[in-house]
């Protein structure tokens, strides 16, 4: 729904309101609203903002890129999904950052299978993105997902093969590469939420919820009626 409404001239505060209405109209509640004190239903993070951006009344402009991170709670479980959108005409180097980050998500998902370990996923994402000269954020990671929004294990987007918690059948995790065009370093704003790149260059963020079913990864956060195997 947000993908159909996000465009030049629209404010992130309007999109946040639409998202909350949509979530509640479908018998769910926004997972992020009030979580640790967060004031909105969506995290909206444009350009150099990495994650946890607070929606505001500034209209989106052509050339912007923006991560939209959404969570919903229904039937006792949370869902969590993020996508980075292009607004109008975006610089080629920024388009490439989004493309590589999105590809790295699926590179990582392929490593989520019985017998592998947490850092096998992170290592795959790190190698793929750093080969393009990008910075992999260290301080922010993916996570387990279920009756709580954030559960074990933490899912870093970096690491060494063969390290970390062993994956088992039925495990559900949120994998979410946060990749910067420049430095991997970040800083937090005075609002206590907004995270930006330390050098002011763009960042990209994509996220899927993935379950291990029959030993293999199956994406749960998809518009298809059933999950998709990778």
From TrEMBL:
Residues 3-212 form the Peptidase M24 domain. A divalent metal cation 2 binds at residues 80, 143, 176, 207. Its EC number is 3.4.11.18. Gene3D superfamilies: Creatinase/methionine aminopeptidase superfamily (3.90.230.10). One of its GO terms (biological process) is proteolysis. One of its GO terms (cellular component) is cytosol. The keyword Plastid does not apply. Keywords: Aminopeptidase, Hydrolase, Metal-binding, Protease. Belongs to the peptidase M24A family. Methionine aminopeptidase type 1 subfamily. This is Methionine aminopeptidase.
